[in-house]
Amino acid sequence: MTSLSTRHIPDRLQSPMTRATRSWEALLLLVAIAIFIANSLASPYFLDPWNLSDASFNFTEKALIAFAMAMLVIAGEIDLSVASIIALCSTVMGAAMMAGVPVWGLVALGLGTGLACGAFNGLLVAGFGLPSIVVTIGTMSLFRGLSFIALGDGAYTGYPAGFAWFGQGYVWWVFSFELVLFVVMALLFSILLHRTNFGRLVYVIGNNATAARFSGVRVDRVRFILFLLTGLMSGIAAICLTSRLGSTRPSIATGFELEVVTMVVLGGVSILGGSGSIPGVVIAALVMGLVTFGLGLLNVPGIVMSIIVGALLIGVIALPRLWAMWRR
Amino acid sequence: MSILKKALTTAALASILMAGAAQAETKRIALVVKALGIGFFEAANKGAEEAAKELGDVEIIYTGPTDTTAEGQIEVINSLIAQKVDAIAISANDTDALVPTLKKAMDRGITVISWDSGVAKEGRQMHLNPSSSALIGNTIIKLAADHLPEGGEVAVLSATTTSTNQNTWIEEMNKVMGNYPGITVVGTVYGDDLADKSYREAQGLMQTYPNLKAIIAPTSVGIVAAAQAVTDAGKVGQVNVTGLGLPSEMAGHVKSGASKSFAIWNPIDLGYAATMIAYNLNTGKATAEPGAEIPMGRMGSAKLDENGEAAMADPFTYDASNIDQFSSIF
Description:
The complex is a heterodimer. Chain A is an all-alpha fold. Chain A is about 70% helix and about 5% strand.
């Protein structure tokens, strides 16, 4: 009986400190800091508050959607129609602007259209039980198709001066409205996902939707709300982007959905659902913004840039797995 | 102050000034294109490098997004603003969406011009069109007339009845018909920029007008289809196909003789001219105002109209002598 077992059974959880330092977010933060330092050394133009402020526009709009997308992915769903929702919101706002609707009306319409698109996705997924990837690939074509019908190869231009503030205005010094919005939304979504009952339910559904349903969780209602939220955030992103571009074309925000999903996955959200965090997504957004801006300053061609971002994504995701295999 | 001290101060001052001058000497001009990896723009970059070599103190930054989006170009422009480049010459993916960012660039003292595909007036100092409607209209009839010294019947194969570009060019062509005596335009047909319809319309022209000497197709789809129709009808040498086309698509027909020559803008000249203009505006050798003439090196000078737009030159003629060089480019 002496050789019974030498297996180590922990009698307590790791201390919060240990957990924090070994977490995905910590690894990602290290990557972000390394990139920041590398950029400062590589280009004399990098460490300039105004340049960094300009660079933040490269990721703020996508990150706003990524927060909601992260929750959706944690719950085991996905929304690939977000970029097309932006196009439709922007088109609706453009048409309203031509009809003389004031700035507050444009904002309301942008948010309303985003919510409506989200509700449509949510209804198909949560209401009719269709797989979200199929539904949102469909609505991806549908929403953008509608803006193409409305606009063709034309464009809406001439937004009122007050509308420009959302995408071009500064709250204080170098802190743009978009950057402040990014910080505020990061806090709100952190609280929602990590500090509320609703947030817990998102994880529960992502880990085991059937068990959640049998435990009395109103799974479909949570899913519907998550799609609404993603639609709303896309509406907000549409307001920012339209204001920043000062115009609407049906090709607006093409390809954003993949960059949003990349941010979410890089942020440590499991694509299979059930785990992930908002701070992770925030750092991932910063990493992507820093990488593209740093490479841009060195005039690295965009094609090489996509290769580097791709390698970064695979690298950051593969490293922990390799690390775990090596330890075993 | 002793003489020595004075001399030293002067020397120090001079060296500082010279250092400053040396730094200010190299002008960094960014050639921003719709997307990287497109032959047309790679050729424009060749022209820009040629201009840089000629000017001596210019560094070209050739850049652009991976795909043809306005958002991608804005990211590129932001990083160029951050690098404090001296000038940006852009072929825009969107007329309007780039305006706020380019305005910011101009606010920070960067010279901004657009070329090939323009930016709205508020977003640039001037726009360089590869050519103008009047020049194109004249070129397409001249190409046909050059090979018809005794005159003869020609016909036009256009895109759709509502194609603004083609209609304008044909209108301009009709204005200058008086300069080409003996040439008569017997008809205009529309191939709708569809390969098969253009082919049938070209066949129809040859049947309706047995004495037809040339088909003018001011559309890249139509010209290829017409050349094919002439080849298939066995009328190579009898009916000459000309107009506007792409060298890569027309190479075979030029070699077979179905098309003796055709025209389109030369991207090398365009990149060269854009760089020259950006340089001259940035160094204060010219100002962008209506009516101004901006020198473009070997391309002559660009005269700005009231919208701040200028036409570079006649479309460039491609024939058997240069088709191989350009067919690999675009």
